[in-house]
Amino acid sequence: MNQFQLYGITDERFHPGRDIVEVMEQAILGGVSIVQLRDKWSAPDELLHKARRLRELTRKHEVLFIVNDHVELALEVDADGVHLGQDDLSLAEARKQMKSKLIGISTHRIEEAIAAQREGADYIGVGPVYATQTKSDVVAPVGLSYVSEVAAEIDIPAVAIGGIKLHNVADVLQAGARRICAVTEIVGSPQVRQTCEAFIHAIRNQAVAPGASGRQG
Ligand SMILES: Cc1ncc(COP(=O)(O)OP(=O)(O)O)c(N)n1
Ligand SMILES: Cc1nc(C(=O)O)sc1CCOP(=O)(O)O
Ligand SMILES: [Mg+2]
């Protein structure tokens, strides 16, 4: 999992009339190498159906599949892992059930990042870097300084998230991010594949700020 650069999260509210699998396939073709199913609205049977379809898609393209919030669903569809926030099931509890599968933890300050790393998270989310339209119950933007702190102090993979667009991704990379996650900029794009290709291009051509090169290769 160390190699991923672009992480895509589903949100069907931003692509009405386009199928979730079709949108995420374009994202994968553009360079997304982790897909997360994040759906707070579907009934359990619908969610299971979407999870099964995305599992099939991600297997076909040999990319990772993560389920947001739901450990049992992740296990049921044999996802590669689960993503949990600070108010979700604890990492220790999730680890008992997920065994060696991946567990990602959202963090909003360095103490949370250090704790997640110490407790065995496989990766952390770092954000919200900027204001986001996608999630209302989220802390205030943490800004680029938190991205730089994580780059300097944390060894496990860290993915910057929250309000990241093609027009500001260079700043996030310059602050030390090496992995980027975006929701609306990807799934809401009329050209999902090209948008992802542009993110990948930015990441591969990142400018490293003096002192912000971080510890994550
Ligand atoms: C990669 C990534 N980072 C952060 C989050 C947010 O998780 P959480 O804080 O649990 O909030 P919800 O997504 O559940 O609303 C994420 N899903 N993925
Ligand atoms: C799901 C989520 N978690 C966040 C966090 O900071 O933990 S920000 C976020 C939404 C990101 O969506 P967009 O790329 O559209 O701003
Ligand atoms: Mg959550």
TrEMBL record:
Database matches in Pfam families: TMP-TENI (PF02581)
NCBIfam families according to UniProt: thiE
Function (record text): Condenses 4-methyl-5-(beta-hydroxyethyl)thiazole monophosphate (THZ-P) and 2-methyl-4-amino-5-hydroxymethyl pyrimidine pyrophosphate (HMP-PP) to form thiamine monophosphate (TMP).
EC main group: transferase
Stated family: Belongs to the thiamine-phosphate synthase family.
Designated name of the protein: Thiamine-phosphate synthase
Residues that coordinate or bind Mg(2+): 69, 88
Protein EC: 2.5.1.3
Gene3D superfamilies listed in its UniProt record: Aldolase class I
HAMAP family in the cross-refs: TMP_synthase
Lineage, opening ranks: Bacteria, Bacillati, Bacillota, Bacilli, Bacillales
Binding-site residues for 2-[(2R,5Z)-2-carboxy-4-methylthiazol-5(2H)-ylidene]ethyl phosphate, renumbered to this chain: 132-134, 163, 183-184
Pathway: Cofactor biosynthesis; thiamine diphosphate biosynthesis; thiamine phosphate from 4-amino-2-methyl-5-diphosphomethylpyrimidine and 4-methyl-5-(2-phosphoethyl)-thiazole: step 1/1
